[in-house]
Amino acid sequence: MTSLAKHALNGVGWLHSSQISGLRHGKLYSPGPRTFLAIHALNAALWEYKENKTLIPGTSSSSNYRDPMVITEAGSLPEAGWWYEVFCGLREPSDMQLEAHFFSEDVAKEHSRVLGRLIRFGLMTNGVDPITELDEFLREHYPTKEVDRVRKMRAIVFNETAWTGEELLNELPALVRVTTAIDGPRTEDELVEYLKTGVK
User: Fold this and answer.
1) What is the tally of structural domains in the chain?
2) Which residues pair with 73 in a beta bridge?
3) Which residues constitute the domain of residue 30?
4) pTM score of the predicted model
């Protein structure tokens, strides 16, 4: 997100990973207006790709944003002024689910086990061998090249470890990409509900 936002802002780095983490956890207590303008620029660029398949300037591939989640208001792309009103507290977004997901360590451990089982079953149902073809599947559908995250993802699939509550929260967007590829949950809310109940 930080890299794509920088491209959307013509090289200006107004959005940082610590800000993204703070926003996701509801702990970024004093974001500046530039943070919101950076999100606006990225959101508009993703909208343009989703609607017209126009790549974000400075990128040569859509592999990191080919199925973007775009923030809308009444189904339309919000303008910069809309974001400023949100920043000032004058507007509450109507199209967005504002309730964050939080996981205790025990819940994250159980959800990790359920997620691993879901992926194993989904792979086999789709004719993918979890033993010999998992690495290729993850390269195609798990949207990160971070070695530690990929290694842990593999271990989750084989029920060898578990995410912490914070790790699971941060993994949700990437996990939706994975579960969508195996005909599983297609949104974060659907995935969290599945992890709670084991039902799509």
Assistant:
1) 2
2) 76
3) 2-88
4) 0.57
